[in-house]
Design a protein that fits this description.
alpha+beta, six-stranded mixed beta sheet, five-stranded antiparallel beta sheet, 13 helices
Length: 474
Amino acid sequence: MQLLARGIVAALTLPALAVPVLAVTTSSYAAADPAPAEDGAAWLAAHLPAGDPGLSIDVALALDEVGGYAGTVGSIRDQVAATADEETAGSAAASAHTILLAAATGDDPTDFGGVDLVARLESLSDGGRVSADSGAQAVGVQALDLADSDLLGEATADLLARQCTDGAFPSAVGAGCGDDAMATTARAVLALVGQEGTAPVDDALRDAMNWILQEQGSLDDTPTAALATRALGALGEDGAAGEAAAWVRSRQLTDVGTCNYYASDDEGAVAYSSQDDIDEGNLAAYQRSTAEALPALRWAPGRAGEPRALLPSGYVTAGAMHPFRVDGLAPGEALCLVAEAPLQRVLVSADATGGYQSVIFGPDDGESLRLSAATVDGTLASVELTGLGPKRLAVALRKKVAKGHQQTVRVSGLAAAERVTVKIAGARVGRGRATSDGTFATRFRVTGKPRTVTVVVQGEVAGRTATKTFEVLG
């Protein structure tokens, strides 16, 4: 038995995550669910990076934005401040990045670890150009804005001059406008939003927002999706931000029900793209992507209603595909699907509407399996399916019946409790369930003129049928 997930046959024994394709919709926006950000923050606080000041700053900024980790953020600040002079020397980008940390923690960026980061950034910027890299330039603009620097106007003008006619910001000076630019466009929005109210900035933000909304369906990695979420949220596009945040949530390591693929102390981490076990080789990548994800997860929508599972059950056509759906989940929420006999599991995630739909292959004729769906709250539904294949049923009846008298139709060869319908000329004359020995009987009064009547018997699934005729006497 296998599940067919979104057109691809996915063996349940693999932790195959079916990730939704998100696009802007007009669906109502549910209130944000704090759990994803809280779970991610707990993992990140327990797995702090060492020896990487840039990554440490990202972690501190993420934990500060989520809240509740003032002590951890303060400790990271102290570590970064201790090496600020050597780490920012000769680097405008590093100076700008560190200013963001100083501003977030309430420190004076003109005296952070004994370094005047603002003066250093200004001295390393060439006429307002912090970097040819557009992402670094955006961070520079944001830092100069927070520091109330006189260089802000020139740096902002440099960034605005890079914007393409379609609203995107290319990855770097000289990069083509057709290049993938979601990350740098989102970073530019985050840098410019603090200067709303001036015509050039407002025009740039409007065009950038429209471009992000148009390209939102092409998200393919956590940092990019997280930046898009934050940019949309900063511009008040909560619905679109929620959909992008759901994409990020779908990358979060989560064990659900009996779909236990990850170590318990790894739950909450957010993968860059595909989920893998965390080890020394990919720990830094998980730290970075989780730090990027945390602020975005604050927009992750919760459930709009109560979850429900619409699963096939009872007798089904053997070997055929049978659709099922789960509704009422939070967009991006993890769902565990389990089929027993043989035991197989798959971990999937809800789409942008909070639903998941797929099909299941019915068991072989006479075979049964149990299908269940579980959320983090527990088992949502558990049903049993039994396959029934085509079969010519046996029918016994009187060959001749006088008008006004009773005809008795007896059907055999059915499965126990199988539904059966008996019709004449399309009109139902009997229906019910078979007995435990697979038989069914019904009686009806014969009416009409003398003729040959065809009795049609239909079992519970297609192909289980029989026909037989009798004569009506006048």
